[in-house]
Design brief:
It is a single chain. The chain is mainly alpha-helical. It has helices at about 5-10, 15-50, 55-80, 85-100, 110-125, 125-135, 140-155, 155-170, 170-195, 220-225, 240-245, 250-280, 285-305, 315-330, 335-365, 370-400, 405-420. Mean pLDDT is about 80; it is low at about 210-235 and about 430-440.
Length: about 450
Amino acid sequence: MERPTYALVRAVPFFYGWWVAIATALIILIASSSPLYVFSALIDPLEEEFGWSRAAIGAGPSIAAVMWGLTTPVAGYLVDRVGARRLLAAGVLLVGGGNLVISQIQALYQFYIVAAVIAVGMGLAGLPVCAVAVTYWFVKRRGLALGIMSAGAGASGIMVLLAALLIALFDGRTGVMILGIGQLATGIPLALTVRHRPQEIGLLPDGEPSALGEASANPLSEAVERGGEGSGIGQSEGFAIGQALHARSFWLLAAALILAYVGSLAVIIHLIPYLDESGGFTEEGAALIAMGIPFGSLVGRLGFGWLADYLSKRWLLVAAWVLQGLGILVFAAVNSPWQAVIFLLLFPTGFGGAVTVLPALLAEYFGLRAFGGIQGLLMTAAMLGGFTGPILAGAVYDVVDSYRPAFLVLALAALTAAVLVPMIGRRPAWGTETVDVPAAQR
């Protein structure tokens, strides 16, 4: 009798790794990006029903941001050990189930608890876990595959419209309940189709010829034995977490991520009030520009992902952060629609491109041995910058009654991140890089 895993592979008319990239993109769209927009759409309904202040309601997403940041490195550690499928299914369950619970809350503390639970689900079903799954399936076409996967986040602007539409057609409670049911009904089946490594189902990365054939007595065991042979990277090659922490390139990338994210998230969070106070923009126009960021990032995610299969990933990351920095620089001076168009050509492209290129670069530099854990730690550094940036921009506005000085500084921060990337040097030869590694970790 044919094993279910092989039947699943044969049901897809192309290399199964591409399905993994598509499925993870949809999971990110459904369960990792959408909660942010649901929180935003719920502000007015919660205020009307319970009379809670905007500050009290806003604390929910803030709690969620902290919990998401704490979950990401843990998820990175776990995905190397239990695989992506279980974490993705658990993440979808927490997000969809959390939205069902939100539809029934009666007190503010309940809202906070559910927001924290949903954030854990976002971390388990988020881009870092999905990137690990996709990375194992590809070597030669890894950049494009990661671009397809991260396009789920770029298309997340769709969730703004969906959440608002459901709440407008019904009410806050019914709308979020329908959304939660939809997340569970679509996200869990998608998660169950994800396989962590191609060797689990008798394949090799990139769909390489495995020479296993139908006559093989045990194709699965042979594929596992061969690992990544002929595909450029073996599944156990690379740095352990302890070795990566002793590598200069790790800390340079951590510093660069802090500098890049301190500006990017500040722009995204403060965009609408800044455009409103800068003049020349209506509230609707500012909201349209805000929606243009995730959609515009699709160009960077797919374009840079495609280029990463042919050009230096290190220099592509430099280019992405230069575009991001120049975009913020234009944003700091924006006072007319044509300047906003230039901003939308630069910033989202660079932001989306960096999101795609980074995991491909990490796999190339640190290998797959502890890829999830290393990526999770670096994303913690990114979130440290992301947490600091909006606070810094708000504090500058409170002091000088303008966001412009803050955005000038944040543009320089992104450009400095681009300067740090070439300093990491060429890809190390694993096991021979000169780092101070304890003997027990060698």
